[in-house]
Write a structure and sequence with these properties.
four-stranded parallel β-sheet; Rossmann fold; binds fe (ii) ion; 8 strands; 12 helices; 2 domains; alpha/beta; binds the ligand C=CC1=C(C)c2cc3[nH]c(cc4nc(cc5[nH]c(cc1n2)c(C)c5CCC(=O)O)C(CCC(=O)O)=C4C)c(C)c3C=C
Length: 367
């Protein structure tokens, strides 16, 4: 979209990133950059370097490349394709007072290169939106660190606001509920599964300044995450359970008909539980025949949704006796998702309506 007036506000959307192509060297380069991030693999530098450059680069990269080949489309990586669609649709929705760009935390387009487009212009404010609904140091935290590092080099640093999380924003819940409802209306399901990207338990404990999280004897049970409170509001696992509760409510799912689980474990450390793999097997063994699976830690379809949830867990479910498995597509370029982004920007760049009203009343009283 051509902008005819100078925009007042900059909007930077940042997603995780994806390889340039599904070829092994590109996947290796992507995994190296991603997993050398100390917020992602939070172990000492030497151990991380050895793990990434010896094990991951040689053994994981060729395996991951095969999976990337499956998810790749004519438009390339879905994560990038939907990222650019979102950028264009949000630019259109916000209009010429806003300048919207997409960057990736790893690989291209890099945060550094995209912020160059913003540098040296007069901004009333920059709004940075890490595209992760639930906060984790490995994702949102890492984006914030990388953006702050770049901005710190600017001569004039404008007002900047980061979106910290949106796991309970009414429009986020509405957007996923709308997508799920279409499937529910078309087919009855025995069970609903909400499967989120996992995290090492160690990272949850590090973020927990109250020694509150994961103190339950059986960390596979909901335990500390059964409700949100002042002690666990920064806990990624708690935020995921909160998203599940809100979606279950929006969709009128009866208590007991839905579960929360965590996928995509990497390495030997203990990750947050229950693991999706175990839950899928258990559901099939209990005699559940049809499952509708949501993946609400992702805002765009990617390897982790299309292949891991849509294909691998489906196969596992069928292997253990399940019959019908359906993945709910991600937000991708859905109108409610674009509206959520627009609202999150407007909430930070326009005066609240109540304030406008108050100012109007004061002005009228003076007259
Ligand atoms: C939704 C938020 C995400 C969190 C939290 C997260 C943590 C995390 N991830 C890894 C390791 C891998 N993740 C991979 C892919 C991947 N991860 C996310 C999102 C989160 N990761 C997305 C959106 C994707 C897909 C990217 C795409 O191009 O489609 C991969 C690469 C794929 C593979 O080889 O399996 C790895 C590896 C860790 C270690 C971690 C937390 C510490
Ligand atoms: Fe990941
Ligand atoms: Fe917690």
């Amino acid at each position: 979209m051509e902008l005819s007036v100078s925009p007042r506000f900059g909007v930077l959307l940042v997603n995780l990133g994806t390889p340039d192509s599904p070829r092994v060297p590109d996947v290796r380069r992507y995994l190296r950059e991603f997993l050398m991030d100390k917020r992602v693999i939070d172990i000492p530098l030497l151990s991380r370097w050895l793990l990434v450059n010896l094990i991951i680069a040689n053994f994981r990269a060729p395996k991951s490349a095969k999976v990337y080949q499956k998810v790749w489309t004519q438009e390339g990586s879905p994560l990038k394709y939907y990222g650019f669609r979102t950028q264009a649709l949000l630019q259109e929705a916000l209009g010429e007072e806003y300048f919207v760009r997409l960057a990736m935390r790893y690989q291209k387009p890099s945060i550094k290169s995209v912020l160059k487009e913003f540098e040296g212009k007069h901004w009333e404010k920059l709004i940075i939106i890490p595209l992760f609904p639930q906060y984790a140091s490995a994702t949102t935290g890492s984006v914030k660190e990388a953006v702050m590092k770049e901005l710190s080099r600017w001569q004039t640093i404008p007002a900047v606001e980061f979106v910290q999380q949106f796991y309970q924003h009414p429009l986020f819940i509405k957007a996923f509920a709308e997508l799920g409802r279409k499937h529910i209306e078309a087919h009855p399901y025995d069970h609903y599964l909400f499967t989120y990207h996992g995290l090492p338990e160690r990272q949850i404990r590090k973020a927990d300044k109250h020694n509150y999280c994961l103190t339950h004897a059986n960390t596979a049970e909901i335990g500390c995450c059964s409700s949100l409170n002042a002690k666990n509001s920064v806990c990624y696992r708690s935020q995921c359970f909160a998203t599940t509760r809100l979606l279950a409510k929006a969709l009128n799912l009866p208590e007991g008909s839905y579960s929360t689980a965590f996928q995509s474990r990497l390495g030997k450390a203990i990750w947050i539980q229950p693991y999706t793999e175990d839950v899928v097997k258990k559901l099939a063994q209990e005699g559940k025949k049809s499952v509708l699976a949501f993946s609400p830690s992702f805002v765009a379809d990617c390897l982790e949704t299309t292949i891991e949830v849509g294909e691998e867990y489906k196969e596992l479910f069928e292997e253990y006796g399940g019959e019908h498995w359906q993945l709910v597509e991600s937000l991708n370029d859905s109108p409610t998702w674009i509206e959520l982004l627009r609202q999150m920007v407007l909430e930070r760049t326009t005066k609240p309506k109540a304030l406008d009203l108050m100012l109007q009343v004061i002005a009228e009283e003076k007259e």
